[in-house]
Structures
1.
Amino acid sequence: MASLSVPPVLTPPRDDAVALHKAFKGFGCDSTTVTNILAHRDSAQRALILHEYKAMYHQDLYHRLATELSGNHKNAMLLWVLDPAGRDATILNQALNGDITDLRTATEVICSRTPSQLQIMKQTYRARFGCYLEHDITERTYGDHQKILLAYLGVPRNEGPEVDPSAVTNDARELYRAGEKRVGTDERAFIRIFTESSRAHLVSIANAYQHMYARSLEKTLKSETTGNFQFGLLTILRCADTPAKYFAKVLHKAMKGLGTSNAALIRVAVTRTEVDMKYIKAEYHNKYKGSLAEAIHSETSGNYRTFLLSLVGRDR
């Protein structure tokens, strides 16, 4: 369930565009107005505002925001104003072609999305950056990690709840034979099953594996695989089961200890606000016995803090 708070009576997109233009005028930017408008409009409404702004002022609102805002507030806002596919494509491009290659972020984005989301994201990546996502992955990755990313992007999967019990049993048995039962690991079996299975089928495999071999499939992955390949498999499995629990853990890791991983905090906040942030907040509270909003409040400041809390939602 989304956490986005939208006014019961919306301002027309043209009026929002005018208000934003006024916020940019003069010395400095009225960041409060910018946040009050854009943090409380859904994806379709934001797209209309961008369209109206360009029609009225012959300027791209995205680029105007980039010149008016700064720091983490700017980074978060520039992702937020994009549509979901454009946002994922931008995160991937930055992870694969930025100053520092971030393969874990690229793996997380790919392995946590549904087949339909991936198809739209690939098309958007090609249109926005002029090259195929698969090409950039091939250039930046290798081995089994590369194989699972390319297969997960390319293999069609059912998104429904249907499960074939006999196929589940066979796949659980094959994973056991490919891992714990033998010396070494047959990575090809793990790649095939994890990239061809629907989320419902994979969850059923994990349950059958536990029942048949008295060991969790997740523990098997941790003992039989390593590195980014292991991270990809675990991300697929965890997001098949409970995506909200997965992202609650990402947020917790981003904010625990000294310093904050603002990139991870921004990535999850802006990509999940319109998807399942209320569930993520509940999972965070259940797991870590604290409030996600309070954690964000303590780890951030200023306009950046206000913007993230507007998306995630303050505790009432």
2.
Amino acid sequence: MIGSLNKRMQDILAERRSQRTRLVTKDGRCNIEYGNIKYSNHFAFLADFWNTFVEIRWRFVLFFFIASFTLSWFIFGLLWYWIARTNGDLTWQNPPEDHMPCVDNVVGLTTAFLYSLETQTTIGYGGRALTPLCPGAVALLIIQSLAGAIINCFMCGVILSKISSPKKRAKTITFSDMAVISPKKGALCLSIRVANLRKTLMIGSQLYGKLLRTTTTPDGETIIMDQVNIEFMVDAGKDNLFFVCPLTIYHIIDKGSPFFEMAVDTLHKHEFELVVFLDGIAESTSSSCQVRTSFIPQEIMWGYNFLPIISRTKEGRYRVDFSNFSKVVPVATAHCPYCFHNIKGHHHHSISGHDNQGFEVIDINDPPNVTKL
């Protein structure tokens, strides 16, 4: 019991360390900090106030939503109170019986605030109304109506933009937890599985990757986060994917690949991060969307392949079993890319992995973890 708890704690600590060391988290967030920014540069965020409001957290958006309306009601309430005070409408000023107020029934600060709220929200209960005797009050009514319309448009636009943000569409596109290296169609390939959880398609989808690592130039200069292009493709190509079902994308490890110098026993000793990108346009909203994830050496399994997840029922319907989405099975694989290309029959066989127990028959039962297309 104690040994299992210790192992569990070690796994949790190791996962936290990997989250801190990677640049892009598994859910696509960039793990980077900016320091020593000049104070004057902070005003750039105010100049670009629209994107600033759209990108801040929901709790701040709700705070500004409540504060903007409440503060505007109170400020205009003070102005209505000042007009009533200037005209002698307040109770403590003891106006005569034949006195004509600028605003009926505005006799104090509370009633002035209520009139401001009713004016800006166009409630109009009928107890308080503007009279035509004060031109300044008419001008203030016009100004408050315009200011209220601007606040309404701005805050509604911010909320709608946050709700329809393409980042939310990215939540329904998922990558496999692990990447695998195995033979595929006569080549040694690094494969990753990606799935669209919605039935609506991603139009014009493109997949590509960046390998981030620290390198040293011949001049002795150390380059942190040196980026190397990694080309991914599927059997039908790499552009304009038909993303109606989960796809297995792969990168061919040839002499031009940065993975060519690695081997099964040295892979986990390297320090790099493979960032995978999926760009596309959401079919339902026509908004551009980018999905990101990353893999560190400990998340790349040499000598494994993904289990199949697509089958066809007796009724002719296609089904996707997501219980096998990230599961792998050991396959005979060369010890290193050089061995694969130059030494025939030189294979490395993994001894651990998941057994492939599914897809022995065509039909699949309907467990709760099956997604129908």
3.
Amino acid sequence: MFMHFILLVSYSLTFLCTHQVSSFDPSCTEFPVFTPSALVVKYGDPANVTCDVCQKDCRGDSFGLETPVGEVRQNGTTMIWTVDRLTEWDTYLICYYNTDDGDQCTSTVDITIYQPPESVSISFVNHTGMMFENQQYTLQCSVQNVAPVQSLTVTFYRGNTALGHLQANSEHKKPVNETFTLNITPSREHDGAQYWCETKLELGPPTSQRPPVVTSEKLPAIVHYGPELKEPPNPDVITITEGDTLHLNCSSVGNPSPSYTWTLPTNSPSYSGSVLTIKSVGFEHEGQYICTVSNTVGTVTKEFNIDVQGECCQILPGKRVTEVQSQYYFTN
């Protein structure tokens, strides 16, 4: 009997985290069978399992089920284990019988006790406030009190787009805190996007329920970038007829919103909008207009060179102008 006890203790200390495992012994013609073959139980929930010890080799009381928790009942050669609240992280079940030769035939069952994270949060590592385009930042997903951590998958998201999947490289049966990080390089298209992380316990096929999922709060991103002109560059000279309306478009995008400063020809009034409009152009409006667009990230400029011509003096292609009696005429 003492030898049987030593063997049972040895099995409990070397319990394998696989599905039902039977010890190999050539004298064993059969092994105990657990139903179900594996258990997945939330910490604190009830659990039960049955073990059919043997079909033909059992003798008298030379069989049983070894476990540190719960209650074991016997019905013929079937052992029934139940527990009202499973709170022992190192729970094991060993079902056995002894042969006539004094050998012991045993099976164990895989028991996964899990606990979804108590909390999941997301933040930036060593950074607060706005971000700048094309610079690298590190997202951090902090997971509190989860088990088993080796079954946890963490996914980082930007909006509905998955950015990466990470798993822990440590193995613990009991709840632990774990931190996962992911590097990102935001662009202007990501301004206003929301970053978040999702944790999922992948517990394997023994459980019929969906994997427990816990998500973090949403972390809004503010991405700053320098001004960029909406309109293409202008030709070297913009020719306009006296009296026509002139529009000079310097519209830009940027974050924060850019400001505009215009450098105008001599004696022209100052202006600070994105589009400069002169309803009726005169010769006094000729010259160079420089638009400077700025924000806290950068500055761009756009130049406009304006040439004003009289309505009667526009030169048509292939023509030259001759003045007769104060009138302008086009001649070949």
